[in-house]
Amino acid sequence: MDRGPLARLADALARISSRWVPDAFSIAALLTFVTLALARGLGRADLAGCVRAWGDGVWTLLPFSMQIAVVIFAGYVLAVSPLVRALLDALASVPRTPRQAAAWTALLSMLLCWLNWGMGLIASAVLVRAVARRRPEADYRVLVAVAYLGLGTTWHGGPSGSVPLLLATPDSFMIKAGLITSPVPLADTIFTATNVGLMVLVTLGLAAFAGLLHPSAVRTVRADPAALGALESFEPPRRPASPTPAERLMHGPWLNGAMGLLGLAYLGSQAWAGRFVATLDTVNLVVLTLALLAHPSPASLVRAAEDASRPLHGVVLQFPLYAGVYGIIKDTGLADALAQAFVSVATPRTFPFVVFCYSAVLNYWVPSGGAKWAMEAEYLLRAAGTLGVGTPAVVMAYAYGDMATNLIQPFWAIPILAVTRLRFGDILGYTGLVAVICFIVTVVAMLIIPATL
Question: DSSP assignment, residue 356?
Answer without folding.
Answer: H
